[in-house]
Automatic annotation (TrEMBL):
Residue ranges of every copy of the Thymidylate kinase-like domain listed in the record: 20-207
The organism of origin for this protein: Thauera humireducens
InterPro entries, per database record: P-loop_NTPase, Thymidylate_kin-like_dom, Thymidylate_kinase
Name of encoding gene: tmk
Annotated protein name in UniProt: Thymidylate kinase
Family that this chain belongs to: Belongs to the thymidylate kinase family.
Phylogenetic lineage: Bacteria, Pseudomonadati, Pseudomonadota, Betaproteobacteria, Rhodocyclales
Keywords: ATP-binding, Kinase, Nucleotide biosynthesis, Nucleotide-binding, Transferase
Stated role: Phosphorylation of dTMP to form dTDP in both de novo and salvage pathways of dTTP synthesis.
Ligand binding (ATP): G22, I23, D24, G25, A26, G27, K28, S29
């Protein structure tokens, strides 16, 4: 399993950081639960979390981010503010203690949604990323790739009131999807693209194989 890139002092006893990414409706949630159950069945201590969120402050910021209109740069900085708290309070202590962290979204999502979808200047994203978590990236990212029209149908079928991101138009999600795939091309060893337009049990089998590779590395 790859280590945390340039993170100083990284050792084999340090925990593994796995993230799940994809546009809204790509089907991450049930697969996250399956991976967490698989790891725990193998005797691994797992901390499951999400972004934005993961801490009391992060969850309060999540509510603002999902429901309050705001300037794009405010949005990006709040995303990274919640992430900094999440890293300090949960992710970094868990990894240092040897626990695995499985997280629904991380900085790849900010690149996809704020840079790709909304048009945030790339250099501003890169500056925030370098400030908030220099040298730390997930060990493994599972990117659920799905055409936006199919994803939108899945979101609509839930009957849940959409948040302000889910209410965006199809062209927004096309840009988000494109940014995700660009990010995957930039980091092919870390980001594994999953075809999410398949039956859940087929996807689960593929994910279990990928996670098994991580366990044996």
């Amino acid at each position: 399993m790859p280590t945390h890139g340039a993170a100083a002092g990284k050792t084999r006893s340090r925990g593994c950081f796995i993230t799940f990414e994809g546009i809204d409706g790509a089907g991450k949630s049930s697969q996250i639960a399956a991976v967490v159950a698989l790891l725990r069945a193998r005797g691994i201590d797992v901390d499951q979390s999400r972004e934005p969120g993961g801490t009391p402050l992060g969850e309060r910021l999540r509510e603002l981010l999902l429901h309050e209109p705001m300037h794009l740069e405010t949005e990006a900085m709040l995303m990274f503010a919640a992430r900094r708290e999440h890293l300090a309070a949960r992710i970094e202590p868990a990894l240092a203690a040897g626990r695995w962290v499985v997280c629904d979204r991380f900085s790849d999502a900010t690149f996809a949604y704020q840079v790709g979808g909304r048009g945030l200047a790339r250099e501003k994203f890169e500056a925030l990323e370098a400030w908030v978590h220099p040298g730390l990236q997930p060990d493994l990212t599972l990117l659920f790739d799905l055409p936006p029209d199919i994803a939108a149908g899945r979101v609509a079928s839930t009957g849940v009131d959409p948040d302000r991101f889910e209410r965006e138009q199809r062209d927004f999600f096309e840009r988000v999807r494109g940014a995700y795939l660009e990010r995957a091309r930039q980091a092919p060893q870390r980001i594994r693209v999953i075809d999410a337009n398949r039956p859940p049990e087929v996807i689960r089998t593929e994910i279990e194989r990928i996670v098994a590779e991580a366990l044996s590395a």
